[in-house]
Recover the amino acids of this structure.
């Protein structure tokens, strides 16, 4: 049986969603970040009930991890999100790994299962802009360095996979395409929670 690892990187609620600051105060942003993360982790549990689900973050998220049937992996030192996730992946045992962003308001277990089912050593779920990466599946433990939060991360992930001789699939899955970073990510009149 394959060892499946699912990582969700999260910031402490008090530091999350700062780019929503023009529309929401700090307490509201914290509630939004927690609600989005809770939704993502619940969808991951429904999609992958037997997977090792883990939050990559600071110790303040320990209780939240317990509440969402995940474990907390302390965030490693690193200058970028990609470096932190690379270090985390290197420290864990896995055959297949997923990294899913914790701010996907529309996340659906069916799209997560599609991400799992598509052939490829590296399967990317691109953001609505076509350049960001909102989720990735790695079926090759010595695959690629991750580029989350870098400009054009989906293109960078695809390029790194091809350079490593790995097969790549790039998907636009409706429920994984939209993340919530800025007020403009919300439809007119939409509230995130």
């Amino acid at each position: 049986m394959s060892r499946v690892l699912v990582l969700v990187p999260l910031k402490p609620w008090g530091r999350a969603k700062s780019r929503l600051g023009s529309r929401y105060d700090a307490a509201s942003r914290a509630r939004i970040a927690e609600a989005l993360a809770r939704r993502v982790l619940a969808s991951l549990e429904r999609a992958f009930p037997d997977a090792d689900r883990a939050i990559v973050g600071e110790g303040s998220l320990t209780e939240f991890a317990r509440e969402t049937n995940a474990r907390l992996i302390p965030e490693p030192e690193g200058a970028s999100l990609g470096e932190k996730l690379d270090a985390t992946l290197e420290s864990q045992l896995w055959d297949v790994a997923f990294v899913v962003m914790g701010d996907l308001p529309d996340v659906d277990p069916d799209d997560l299962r599609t991400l799992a089912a598509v052939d490829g050593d590296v399967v990317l779920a691109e953001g609505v802009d076509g350049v960001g990466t909102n989720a990735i599946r790695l079926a090759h433990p010595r695959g690629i360095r991750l580029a989350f939060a870098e400009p054009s991360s989906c293109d960078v992930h695809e390029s790194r996979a091809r350079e490593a001789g790995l097969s790549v699939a790039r998907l636009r899955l409706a429920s994984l395409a939209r993340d919530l970073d800025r007020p403009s990510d919300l439809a007119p009149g939409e509230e995130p929670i």
In short: The chain has a mean pLDDT of 93. The chain has one domain: 4-185.
